[in-house]
UniProtKB/TrEMBL annotation:
<dbReference type="InterPro" id="IPR029787">
    <property type="entry name" value="Nucleotide_cyclase"/>
</dbReference>
<dbReference type="Pfam" id="PF08447">
    <property type="entry name" value="PAS_3"/>
</dbReference>
<dbReference type="InterPro" id="IPR000014">
    <property type="entry name" value="PAS"/>
</dbReference>
<dbReference type="InterPro" id="IPR000700">
    <property type="entry name" value="PAS-assoc_C"/>
</dbReference>
<protein>
    <recommendedName>
        <fullName>Diguanylate cyclase</fullName>
    </recommendedName>
</protein>
<feature type="domain" description="PAS">
    <location>
        <begin position="123"/>
        <end position="193"/>
    </location>
</feature>
<dbReference type="InterPro" id="IPR001610">
    <property type="entry name" value="PAC"/>
</dbReference>
<dbReference type="Pfam" id="PF00990">
    <property type="entry name" value="GGDEF"/>
</dbReference>
<dbReference type="InterPro" id="IPR043128">
    <property type="entry name" value="Rev_trsase/Diguanyl_cyclase"/>
</dbReference>
<dbReference type="InterPro" id="IPR013655">
    <property type="entry name" value="PAS_fold_3"/>
</dbReference>
<feature type="domain" description="GGDEF">
    <location>
        <begin position="280"/>
        <end position="415"/>
    </location>
</feature>
<feature type="domain" description="PAC">
    <location>
        <begin position="197"/>
        <end position="249"/>
    </location>
</feature>
<dbReference type="InterPro" id="IPR052155">
    <property type="entry name" value="Biofilm_reg_signaling"/>
</dbReference>
<dbReference type="InterPro" id="IPR000160">
    <property type="entry name" value="GGDEF_dom"/>
</dbReference>
<dbReference type="InterPro" id="IPR035965">
    <property type="entry name" value="PAS-like_dom_sf"/>
</dbReference>
Length: 422
């Protein structure tokens, strides 16, 4: 976040506070400059290589000392934190947001307690200022995971009234597949007897829908050593996670056919190399349609796209299995990746099946169809000789030889012995 964005965010923050509740005139002296400093500090914490939530505590203390003690200021403050997290390029912005929010709340409440303001005389009143006005979900649990209290944002998040939430186990809110993970996370936190833990998982709303949530859980000690509670600060990240998954899918798949793309293929090859035994082998079939340019030139790109989609569908129907990955890496180029164990017979079989699946004419209209063929450059290589980037080039060498031999054929290149074979 540059200085201009910091100043603009500070201006919006102060305007939001001014618009929701009047503050003492003394609270406005230089407030925008102070807010700019707080924003810069929080933004730096969100994007730091090594995360430290302490700036959240310092900002909470500074807010209380700046006489920003009216409960209504906490709503805009939470919104500023969420906005900073969304701007952050850091991969752990959600977890860091929860930790900073928790520390800001702790610092704010602690400072208000120390100041003994006339408006809020007890720790319970101070806690509920933060508790009831926070834009994030906050819930209090005992050491057995039973809900002691929950704020209005928690009510909205799970779709239940506070009186129904109180008394329920925190595990009861989680989807079945994530309950054990949460239990282990809390158990580790309790064994440490201090600190904070972060958890992301699926939870069940009252209407039966499943959503994703992110929580930061802090162990809080009471008056005695055995008197402990867990404060959980969370938010619904369903939409954010769906967007992340969609962007991840788009980055790894071909938009026309929906097949894995070149990036996904190379990542899978590298994963196989990292996991397989050195003496194992993998196979690749590089498929290129014969004279595909003529189809585009004669029938147009719409027909060409329909042909590519049908080729992808046929290859998938003929070859798909847990040990086979099919991808489109560009134009009319498709790749079949054969995971270990793999030998020449398996590669040759895959090449033959791929070509056979394309021999049936492809309908392009009510009374018209296209006959196509392809050539295949195949590679069989030991894992210890795999060069991920060069692997496609090795297959392309076989493809060149196959096309030189005529349509509808393949050539296998065995890395290590240099013996191409048809």
């Amino acid at each position: 976040m540059d200085s201009r964005e910091v100043i603009e965010t500070a201006r919006k923050w102060s305007a939001a506070i001014a618009g929701c509740h009047p503050l003492p005139s003394t609270a406005w002296d230089g407030i925008e400059n102070r807010m700019a400093g707080w924003i810069a500090e929080l933004d730096a914490a969100l994007s730091a290589d090594r995360f430290d939530p302490e700036p959240g505590h310092r900002v909470g203390v500074a807010m209380a000392r700046a006489q920003l003690t009216t409960p209504a200021v906490l709503g805009p403050t939470s919104s500023v934190l969420v906005d900073l997290a969304e701007r952050s390029a850091g991969p752990e912005a959600t977890r860091r947001l929860g930790a900073l929010t928790g520390e800001l709340s702790r610092g704010y409440t602690t400072e208000l307690l120390a100041s003994r303001t006339s408006r809020l005389q007890t720790a319970e009143e101070l806690f509920h200022v933060v508790f009831d006005n926070a834009a994030v979900a906050i819930a209090l649990y005992d050491v057995d995971g039973i809900t002691i209290d929950a704020n209005p944002t928690t009510e909205r998040m799970v779709g239940m009234a506070r009186e129904d939430i109180i008394g329920m186990s925190g595990l009861d809110f989680m989807a079945a597949g994530d309950r054990e993970k949460l239990r282990l996370c809390v158990t580790r936190l309790m064994k440490r007897k201090q600190g904070t833990a972060h958890f992301e998982g699926r939870f069940c709303r009252a209407d039966g829908t499943i959503a994703w949530g992110s929580w930061t859980m802090t162990l809080v000690h009471g008056k005695s050593e055995l008197d402990m509670y867990i404060v959980a600060v969370g938010e619904d990240i369903t939409e954010r996670r769906a967007l992340q998954e969609e962007l991840q899918w788009q980055a790894h798949h071909d938009s026309l056919t929906g097949m894995p793309n070149r990036r996904c293929l190379l990542e899978r090859v590298q994963a196989i190399v990292d996991e397989a035994e050195p003496e194992a082998s993998l196979g690749v079939c590089f498929i290129d349609l014969d004279s595909f340019k003529m189809i585009n030139d004669r029938y147009g790109h719409n027909v060409g796209d329909r042909v590519l989609i049908e080729v992808g569908r046929r290859l998938d129907a003929a070859l798909a299995s847990p040990s086979v990955m099919l991808s489109r890496i560009g134009g009319d180029e498709f790749v079949v990746l054969l995971s270990p164990p793999c030998d020449a017979e398996r590669v040759n079989d895959a090449a033959g099946v791929a070509l056979a699946s394309l021999r049936e004419p492809i309908p392009i209209g009510a009374d018209d169809s296209l006959s196509i063929s392809a050539s295949v450059g195949a590679v069989l290589t030991p894992i210890d000789k795999v060069d991920t980037e060069k692997l496609i080039d090795d297959a392309d060498t076989g493809l060149y030889l196959a096309k030189a031999s005529g349509r509808d054929t393949w050539v296998l290149n065995r890395i290590g012995d240099g013996r191409p074979e048809n």
